[in-house]
């Protein structure tokens, strides 16, 4: 591509640039002739379509040609440009160092330039090479490719992978804790497997909702419905849900789901849901704000056993520990769990930023 010769003003990509018109030369051995000056604009148009910026400057640093630079570069014409005005004070010194080396040894060099501020992130790949003009003088040819979208995607992927690793470790810790506590309080292997599988299924159900929401969390009513669905019919008239359909964080969904599982299992085994005339009401309501400005929500489980009362149960087990200690601690909240002669009451209060 010959930039020397007569110049004609042209405009592309919102920038003013100059194109050279060169001499005619042989295109192939069969005698076909072509004009390099006519082909050059086509090649420049192809570069612009590929979103490749092109700049040419002489050895004194004066820009002779400029077009197609990424949008975050200043909108300058060639005669107005300098390394500092075009690339900025942060990129210009590094570019000057590379240009000096390329002009000395003639070897092409490619560098990546990254700028990150509070308001903007930008990255580009700049290739520097020595270019011989038609009059045998050397010039510096720069090609610039915008890498900003690619680097942003990479950063987003890295953040997602780190978040996934963090959540996986947390979930594994929960599973290990459940396994250990369930084994400690199980009479035999069959009892352990039944309880452990139920708790893991509760975790899995909550995680499915979180994953379906692109890790935004889970709605309280849907989370509760999923936990009930494993033990009772979808439209069981003994169950009522009311209040705010709160969007729980991924951590909140995991632990609230586990709490609901324990309450539902106890109810279907010993309480209201083991009787035809028992009833369960689950609600979520706002209780104002705390001193830090976070809104406080309260989840209530109100269970009435019905005419038959509660079936006999043994001493407090791991399910009680989950409800009274593990879940509220994981949500920075507090809980109250009461088992009475006519019903069970569970109250969980926790902040939502």
Structure description:
By secondary structure, the protein is an alpha+beta fold. The chain is built from 7 helices and 16 strands. The radius of gyration is 35 Å and the shape is rod-shaped.
> Count the helices. How many?
7
Number of strands: 16
Counting copies of identical and different chains, the oligomeric state is: single chain
Helix content: 25-40%
Structural class: alpha+beta
End-to-end distance, in Å? 60 Å
| Element string (H = helix, E = strand) | EEEEHEEHEEEHHEHEEHEEHEE
Mean pLDDT: 85
Shape: rod-shaped
Q: Give a short account of the largest sheet.
A: 5 strands, antiparallel
What is Rg?
Answer: 35 Å
Widest beta sheet: strand line-up: 6-5-9-8-7
Sheet-strand content, in percent, reads 25-35%
Unreliable spans: 1-35
Please give the structural blueprint.
Elements: E1 6-12, E2 15-21, E3 24-26, E4 33-35, H1 36-49, E5 52-58, E6 63-67, H2 83-105, E7 109-116, E8 121-132, E9 138-146, H3 148-184, H4 189-212, E10 218-219, H5 220-229, E11 239-243, E12 247-248, H6 250-269, E13 279-289, E14 295-304, H7 318-330, E15 334-339, E16 343-352
Parallel strand pairs: 11-13
Antiparallel strand pairs: 1-2, 3-4, 5-6, 5-9, 7-8, 8-9, 10-12, 13-14, 14-16, 15-16
Spell out the key features of this protein.
353 residues, alpha+beta, five-stranded antiparallel beta sheet, five-stranded mixed beta sheet, 7 helices, rod-shaped
Question: What is this structure, in a nutshell?
Answer:
By secondary structure, this protein is α+β, with helices and mostly antiparallel strands.
């Amino acid at each position: 591509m010959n930039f020397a010769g007569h110049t004609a003003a042209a405009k592309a990509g919102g920038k003013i640039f100059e194109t050279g018109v060169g001499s005619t030369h042989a295109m192939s051995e069969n005698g076909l002739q072509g004009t390099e000056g006519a082909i050059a604009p086509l090649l420049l148009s192809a570069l612009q379509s590929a979103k490749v910026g092109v700049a040419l400057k002489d050895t004194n640093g004066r820009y002779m040609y400029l077009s197609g630079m990424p949008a975050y570069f200043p909108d300058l014409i060639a005669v107005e440009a300098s390394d500092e005005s075009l690339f900025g004070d942060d990129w210009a010194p590094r570019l000057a160092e590379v240009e000096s080396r390329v002009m000395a040894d003639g070897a092409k060099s490619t560098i990546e330039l990254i700028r990150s501020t509070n308001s903007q992130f930008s990255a580009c790949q700049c290739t520097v090479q020595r270019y011989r003009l038609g009059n045998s003088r050397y010039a510096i040819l720069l090609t610039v490719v915008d890498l900003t979208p690619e680097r942003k995607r990479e950063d987003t992927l890295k953040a997602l992978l780190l978040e996934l690793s963090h959540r996986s470790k947390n979930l594994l810790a929960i599973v290990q804790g459940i396994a250990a506590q369930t084994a400690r309080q199980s009479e035999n292997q069959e009892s352990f497997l039944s309880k452990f599988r139920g708790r893991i299924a509760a975790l899995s159900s909550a995680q499915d909702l979180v994953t379906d929401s692109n890790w935004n969390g889970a709605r309280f009513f849907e989370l509760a419905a999923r936990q009930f669905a494993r033990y009772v019919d979808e439209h069981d008239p003994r169950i009522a849900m009311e209040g705010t359909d709160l969007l729980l964080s991924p951590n909140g969904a995991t632990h609230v789901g586990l709490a609901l599982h324990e309450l539902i299992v106890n109810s279907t085994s010993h309480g209201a849901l083991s009787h035809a005339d028992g009833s369960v009401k689950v609600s979520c309501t706002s209780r104002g704000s705390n001193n830090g400005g976070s809104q406080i929500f309260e989840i209530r489980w109100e269970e009435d056993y019905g005419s038959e009362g509660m079936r006999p149960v043994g001493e407090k087990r791991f399910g009680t520990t989950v409800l009274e200690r593990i879940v509220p601690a994981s949500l920075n909240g507090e809980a109250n769990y009461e088992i009475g002669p006519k019903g069970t009451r569970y109250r969980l209060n926790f902040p939502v930023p």
